[in-house]
User: Fold histidine kinase from Anaeroselena agilis.
Amino acid sequence: MGNSLINKLHRRLTLVNVAVILLLFFILIVGAYFFFQHDMNRRTDAVAARLEADIKAGIITDLPQFKGPRKRPSPAAPPSFPPGPPPPAHNFFFVKTSPAGAITFQSSGQTLEGDHLAALAAAALAGENSKGTVSLEQNRYTYYKSPLASESGTLIIFHDMEHDLGLLRLLLTALTVVGAICALLSFAASHFMARRAMVPIRTAWRQQSDFLSDASHELRTPLAVIQTNLDIVLDNGGETVASQNKWLTNIREETVHMAKLVDSLLFLARADSNQQPLDIRPFPLGTALVRAVTPFEPLAAAKGITLEYAAARSISGYGDEARIKQVVGILLDNAIRHTPPGGEIKVELDRAGPKTVLTVADNGEGIAPEYHDKIFDRFFQADRSRNDSGAGLGLAIARWIVESHGGTIAVKSAPGKGTTFVVALPWK
Assistant:
């Protein structure tokens, strides 16, 4: 079920990315096309304006006619258009018409037959605006018409749009091909990036599934014990409370164990959702260490373990005092559980440059090297057959607390040679 949802999310994320990229490409293609079209129209208008001014000034009498530099009017009559190269003759031509609409002059820079040219001129004259577009035999022409001042009639400048339209079609084809290639590449890239983005989601989902499975397993054991002992008590309803003390004690121990487990689960859940607050402030770290170690002395003595600790009370710390003491408690509890009778545990606190280093060492059973990176994972237990190994949450909580203080926690251990946990905290 989980993989199905993740795969569905993967596909949806890929499609969303591709849709966004394709939309951007479409906007880019349309924008480039209309920008190029606008630029061509602007240039055409500029050339037509120069042609109109030259024709009316008598500089141009026919098209094409300029193979060398353009002749300029005398200084007494400066041109009314900016200087520039002569207009292209292959797609511009003009006609002059009488007031009745008959063509009185046509430039030589065109290949239309007389009746076609007359029809083109008539269509332009029929237009209401001085500029427009007419079509003739599937060809499109832009026209610019203006009255002739020196002679009655109209000047009509035509621009054959076939060449420009061909360029626009070529541009659109090129943009479409490039867009299609980019669409394929974007799909591949989106699929890859979506898969990379799903890695932490898959990891989180797997961790959550493992967490729920392990939590259910850990809770099932004390509940089974409680239920079994309650069944025994209920089956012996006529017995006194004192005679049922063994079963009631078992129920109490399992209840305490389950309460600790639930507290640990709640702590980690709050930590995962960034809802586990820390009361950061300066505090006497050396004194806090002594207070954290003292409650474990009776437990160590009851098991025949020597517990030694050395810390200068003058050493100060900066962080959440209660959480740092919790880390010490977790490490000591772990050391006592895994150290045999007659063993030894040493706790030391010292300065090491810009850091404060806490060391908890025992000469217990040790940890195999292949487990060094796993012991801080939730619910991990190197030996699940041991009933006193706990739920495997303590070291995960300790790592979160240490890392939340900007520190590090590491383990040095080997089977039969004991275990040393080293916690380095920044000194502020």
Remarks:
- Residues 200 and 206 are 10 Å apart (CA to CA).
- The longest helix spans residues 162-235.
